[in-house]
Amino acid sequence: MVSPIRIGGMASGLDTEKIVKDLMKAEREPLNKLLRKKQQEEWKRDSYRDMNKLLYDFQRSLDSLRFASNITKKKAVSDNDSAVSVVTKSTPSLSNYSIKVNKLAQPAVPASAQLQVDPSISGSTSPIGSSFEFEIASSGGSGASKITVDANDTIDKVISKINQSGSGVSATYFNNSIVLTSSNGSTFDVKVTNGDGSKLGMGNLNNVTSSNAGTPGVGAEVEINGIKQTVSGNTFTYDGIEITLNQVTTTPSTISVKTDGDALFDTFKNFVDKYNQLIDAVNGKISEKKNKGYQPLLDEEKESLPEKTAEKLENMAKSGILQRDPILSNVLDSMRMALSSKLNGADPLFDTLSEIGITGAPNGKYAYLEKGKLYINENKLREAIEKDTDKVINLFTQYDKNDIGKTGLAQRLYDKIDIAVKQLSEKAGSTTTTTDTSVLSRNIETLNKDIKRWEDRLKDMEDRYWKKFSAMEKAMAKTQSQGTWFAKMLGGSQ
Fold it and tell me: Per the database entry, which stretches of residues form a coiled coil (predicted)?
């Protein structure tokens, strides 16, 4: 709907537009409070969602620690790398393998032929100068491939035709000759069927160029755990282990599969790094300074300010939006408690994080500033892993649905975070859900309705002001008109 055109002050000389605007400025204050309140609620909702995503992502990462199948990485080691070397590709099913190499694999030598190019053709990009047709027939193929050569074709063009013919023979240009090689190991013949192919070393009509016979490949022979096996190459994968045969052996080599201590150490280090990042982020949010006297800017206020100034003022108003938030404060406390508690029933040397070398901030003057971050004593952690890997893993992965005291630290931490994630979702919702019934979203919806009612009320109020001023202008105009008439009458009677 187009707003009516209003022109005031024609009779009174008053700036009606400014008067109405000033009157409405005071009347709009309740609406402005609602708009600012809505912005604060939106900021709070978005901040909660950001924190919730951080917690949720960290919670998901705990899957690498909650389950023994995820945390345990196996590593295969050969006792004779010079004969048999190994690389772990997945989790092997056995702890030991015996491998004896009876014979190494020998690769196939492909069949080949060399066609000497006429010296008059200077390079692979020069035209051949004659037209002819020839066939390539491979002993391992299904039939002959026919290739047509035009006088304007270059050697590169002919080579491309051979490689795309599907004959099983590949061609390349080297030292003023075309070298043909069988890609499938079979012998082949090249036969000119029309014209003269002597410029490419193929001779005249019906001349046959045969390939040099290749040598077929020979597989390797090994004994794996006493069972003879034949494999096509010297490198193959067996039960999750990539095995490379380097030399023939008279006695078996032993492949031992153990828990990969380095990988386990890296898993714990990655956990501590992510945990500390989370602690920093949450602590930063609940301890963020709240700037008194700053509030969200209204649209007209933003428009009247330089962009950078408006952005700075907005950031000042946002700061401290979640200061001392109870949900975030509680999850920090519960996470610290989960990680500092003992695992009941475990070996006393492996029943807390500190026993394996993961502790809080070292005691000192500024230890309190670390606010619950974890630190790794690398030597102590590696010693614990080497001493008893299973007990270190058990500290994180043990599970007892009836006794939280006998549940591993990773599951405890997961459960504590899960409570906070649900509380934050109830408070602020999630960007991944289509229906949002969270507390803050309901608050914002209520504010939207209140804002709409106030906007309608203010529009009616402004219309009433204009009607009053318009009526005043009409009355003054009428009075002025009558005064003019009387003046004329009086002037005419004199």
Answer: 437-464
Whose tokens are 């010296």? That residue is 119
What residue spans of 164-306 are helical by DSSP H? Answer: 261-286, 299-303
Among 195, 212, 180, 202, which residue's Cα sits nearest to residue 118? 202
Q: What is the pLDDT of residue 488?
A: 62
Residue from 377, 379, 417 nearest 282 by CA:
417
Residue 413's pLDDT is 96
Q: What is the pLDDT of residues 75-92, one digit of tens each?
A: 999 999 999 999 999 889
| Cβ–Cβ under 8 Å, residues 206 and 194 | no
DSSP 7: -
- Give the residue numbers spanning the domain of 354: 263-423
184 vs 191: CA distance, rounded Å: 19
Cβ proximity of 451 and 34 under 8 Å: yes
Total tally of structural domains belonging to the chain: 3
Residue 200 DSSP symbol: G
Instruction: Note whether 386 and 274 are same-domain residues.
Output: yes
Q: At what angle do helices 409-428 and 439-493 cross, to 10 degrees?
A: 20
What's the mean per-residue pLDDT of the chain? 87
How distant is the alpha carbon of residue 363 from its chain centre? Answer: 38
Q: Determine the Cα–Cα distance for residues 144 and 141; give it in Å rounded to an integer.
A: 8
Q: Is 109 helix (H, G, I), strand (E, B) or coil?
A: strand
The CATH number of residue 119's host domain is 2.60.40
